[in-house]
Amino acid sequence: MGKDKKILIVTNYFPPEKGAASNRMFSLVKGLSENHYSVSVVCPLPNYPLGKIADEYRGKLFQKKKESFGTIYRLWLWPSNSENKFIRMLSMLSFSLSLTLFFILKPIPKKVIIQYSPVFVGFTAVFWARLFSKKIILNVSDLWPLAGLEMGLLKKGFYYSILTKMERFCYQRANLILGQSKEILAHIEKLGVEKRLFLYRNFPDFKPPNISETKKVEGDIKLVYAGLLGVAQGLFKVCSTITFPENSSLHIFGAGPEANKIKALKKKNVFYHGEINREILHQKINDYQVGFVPLANRIYGSVPSKIFELSRLGLPILYFAGGEGEDIVKSKKIGWVIPVNNMEHFQSFIDSLSFEKLRDFQKKEVQRNAISSFNFKEQFLKLLLEIERN
After folding, report:
1. What whole-number distance in Å separates Cα of residue 266 and Cα of residue 264?
2. 316: domain CATH number?
3. pLDDT tens, position by position, 76-90
4. CA distance 359 to 319
5. What whole-number distance in Å separates Cα of residue 387 and Cα of residue 41?
6. In terms of residue numbers, what domain contains 335?
7. Which residues contact 203 (CB under 8 A, 6 or more apart)?
8. Which of 46, 81, 120, 225 is deepest in the core (most CB within 10 A)?
9. How far apart are CA 320 and CA 248, in angstroms?
10. Domain tally for the chain?
């Protein structure tokens, strides 16, 4: 059957960029395409998380490329991963400008899915989609600016109040709001926004590998972290504070603002391996015994997607991030929970970590629990019904 429905997705992150946000949007695109939608994606030229345009896209102002699912439009922006709020704002505004020109100059389908945040990008897309009377589906993955406040990146004041007004504007103009956590949906309801709400977790969509419990386990217990190395994740603090005994080690893959500090730390039994392709990581996952999921502080609304991906790969989760994710890890029996930012508790856990303790969460059992609980296709079919209600 040919594709007979058109939809536009606006996102700040998309492959070949790595990370949870990029994977989430690609899974959404793939799911829509497999259900007879012709999808157009508008996103920036690849620049995340390094804050510079990828080599093969450098010097371009615009790229249009046909794919099996539809078309990708990559737009110019001034890239930056600076910790300076003003510089980061200018970077987001540059993409907002390109996005404005896109909405004015290109025909837009009747339905538009908009990834929120960043706030400026979400606000720009919602403004123009609303002006052109499009049906807006807002995909809310975190609660900016509240998350910025909780991470210490923002302070209450004029700038913060502007961001909260933009946030409410986006919620109030949407026809359907997707939230990746129950806390996000509760926050939106608390603001008095009366819109259709749908819990849309960031479940991964890949074939789970075969797990071998008979593989001989010896040597040290290897914990693995793979993802963004930013302030919110707090990996540098963990690496510099925690002492890993002879029988355990932490292996880190990824890029981001803290990467160079972690690389330069030279801490015993802490190994930084740089970036790695997601598919290669999946192939190597049997080399590790525990998936590490940290946040520097509890962030309201945040549920790290690594919970779903690592458990599907068969790794029991060591969860150190607080919030709603704690309940998921506990209730689905996929790992251990340590109170967020409690370094003493974390050190005690690492000191007591043993192969005997690993028997509490066998890999096959963890994977089985994850597959049954975090079903992308089942959730996506429910989402389709919501999208097609308009």
Report:
1. 6
2. 3.40.50.2000
3. 999 887 777 778 788
4. 17
5. 17
6. 221-373
7. 27, 308, 374, 375, 376, 379
8. 225
9. 17
10. 2
